[in-house]
Input
Amino acid sequence: MLFGAHVSSGGGITNAIGRAADLGCEALQIFTQSSRQWRATNHPEELLAAYRSEAAAAGIAYSLCHAIYFINLASTDPDVAAKSRLALATTVGVAARIGADTCFHVGSHLGAGLDATLANIVDGISPALDALGDDEWLLLENSAGAGDTIGRDIDELARVVAAVDHPRVGLCIDTCHIFVSGVDIREAAIVDSLLDDVDRRVGLHRLRALHVNDAAAKLGSNRDRHANMLEGEIGERMGVLLSHPALAHLPAILETPGPEGKGSDAEEVRRLRATHANGASARQLNGARDESDER
Output
């Protein structure tokens, strides 16, 4: 597993690499522009060209670009739909230049339902697919399930993936979102069932990244409130998910608020690693016990 965090790209997109390396990361996530503005950032050509080599030199093996929060590909408002298509395609284009995947939230059907807005979503994703590089992926992120947001469960995400029908459209699962939407990832049997569902509906090969966030809100609350590692409702039981063998190759990227509300720090990354290691040890111990019981 590659451990990482969301970091700032302020001052130049390559600055994110050093910031992530200073935290002890092997993976990172960035916004390619202000997360709460439509206006795109013009990245200097020399920085885009230098990104891959600088990331490799710093030991950053995976990069993920998060599209802005305003995107709503399900919108029937022509202006919002056009801005959303452009914002997503622009992020994917920058990501392709630096060798990064892109993740995004589909948006909200605003009461119309997924069936009524699925065609709009597919049309909205199309320009982003044109901007994809040869190896990069476009990842749909699950939502916390509030209101009419799309992606509250694997079924909704799978329906979008099937409708888009592209070999490099996949998923990014957020641990806080999946927990507050009602999936108790503290329990091994439920994690097994979740991943079986992903495999059956979209294929585990399409699960490309994890957002690792503890939850400040209760199971099933549908409240998107991230907590620092080991300080929320999931706590040490996050290791149940992180240590699952099916996820062993994935990047696990923190989006926690951090001790001062300025984002994840080195201690958060250390906790992430330790939680994974402790979960793996517990899984091995339980496996040994099961084997002994069978004897």
